[in-house]
Amino acid sequence: MAAPLQFDLLIKNGIVVTASDEVRADVAVKDGKVVMLALGLEAPEGCRVIDAEGGYVTPGLVDSHVHVAQSAAKALGAKSADDWTSASRSAVAGGCTSMIAFAVQNRGESMQAAVDAYHQLATGNAVADYSFHVIVTDPSKEQMHGELPSLIEQGITSIKIYSTYPALKLSDEQILECFYAARQYGVTTMVHAENSDMIAWMTRDLAARGMTAPWNHGTSRPPIVESEATNRVLALSELMDCPVLFVHVSAPDAFKVIREAQTRAMSVFAETCPHYLLLTGKEMRAPGFEGAKACCAPPLRENPADRELVWNSTCNGTVTVVSSDHAPTNFYDENGKQLGLTKNPGKSPRGDFRYIPNGLPGVETRGPLMWSEGVCKGRMSPSKFVELNCTNAAKLYGMYPQKGTIQPGSDADFVIWRSPTARKTSKVTVSNLHSACDYTPFEGHDIEDWPVMTILRGEVVYDGATNNVVAKPGYGQFLKRGKSVLSGPRNKWLNEWRPSYLDAAGEEDTQNASGGANGK
User: Fold this and answer.
1) Is the pTM for the entire model greater than 0.90?
2) Mind listing the pLDDT tens digit for each residue in 371-418?
3) What angle do CA 16, 9, 124 make, to 5 degrees?
4) 3-class SS at 434?
5) Strands 56-59 and 414-417
6) How far apart are CA 416 and CA 408, in angstroms?
7) Any bridge partners for residue 102, and if so which?
8) Cβ(469)–Cβ(461) below 8 Å
9) FRET label pair with 265: which of 251, 452, 471, 510, CA 20 to 30 Å apart?
10) For the chain, what is the total number of helices (H) and then of strands (E)?
11) What is the SS3 assignment for 379?
12) Is 355 in contact with 55 (CB distance < 8 Å)?
């Protein structure tokens, strides 16, 4: 007689959703891992049983773009509203079980030092599982070919680079250095693409005219600022044959050039965020200084038609991942958005956008908003939701199939959502959120359903019935990541030039053996 099956958690009566399928199945868990999916499983003695009551069971969400204890306006004295405990508590309350934050390399310092510093901040304090990207500001040969391979061995397999912000931006030549190394070592490269010189010129001119209200932040960054930089960085990535991910894409022409590159089979990926799907530039025109709450970069777009284009691009496959770009600074804080009033040379009652820290909070609201506006309102299927919010991020950042799916061997990370007939509508309100940020840009927004429960590695970490995070700081574990399993270099070149490391490795350009000038 066969021994009875052993597991310690059983989720029954749910519709299990992956990026490819929806299936009615029970999910059995043992020691924090999925061990079986089947109908009619019986719970062994001592096993905890959770009844999904006909609702959907999705993988735990993966938020691959969050800023924790880090502000792009640090030089102004800005301070992040969230530490690792408050940010990760907020994450799991919105269904997010894995988050990847940014370790910032300061110019002249090492990437390793940045990673070590962020480990010290996160270790023992996180509720969700977590990892780091490295923001590269000094791509020297030593950093790119000495420290980067070492970081890969430590499970840090992604970098982010900027084409804007004085403290962060790289020149085109430096971007090429990053792409060269990223292709060689198989590192996922994220790019914040905006034209820094355009922004600087527009900002100076607006300030000289006294046009410094919060909505002029958007004036200083018209869509062409993003689309120009996106097109330019695409050219650099094609020259290096290096895959690239454009983060927080919002501009119509930026989506257009990304889509065209994808159509040419380039390994080009796009990320967008709920605020570009749900908000517009009118948020920055709120009375008084309230518009500062909506200042982010790229800015919210004025034309409502642009928002619909973001939805189209999200649903038609142009967008690879939806992330929150959680970048919280408090509104009522002298080290937060209030810097736009206190550092205000013109003494305008509306403040000065040049000193308003960019960024919006959103790690907790991302999942519920995308489920409500995407799935509940029929814009996308539950499987498409999982693809955008779980699976593709896990694949792109080297966490799949440990994260981002529900299958035997995967971490037992789940979000339970109600069935369509049992949904409970509500409104977003900052008083019910778990971030330390004192506002949300989605205040009053209708929510069709909020997670019933969030489970991380087989343990309930958030209980929607009480709106309580029940996991303790330190439950979250560092994720040692591998390399992307999405499409990589194509080995197509624009002329006879090849990276020297291909020659050194004796590799043959099999796709361009004839040596044609266009590599086709």
Assistant:
1) yes
2) 999 999 999 999 999 999 999 999 999 999 999 999 999 999 999 999
3) 100
4) coil
5) antiparallel
6) 18
7) 133
8) yes
9) 251
10) 16, 19
11) coil
12) no
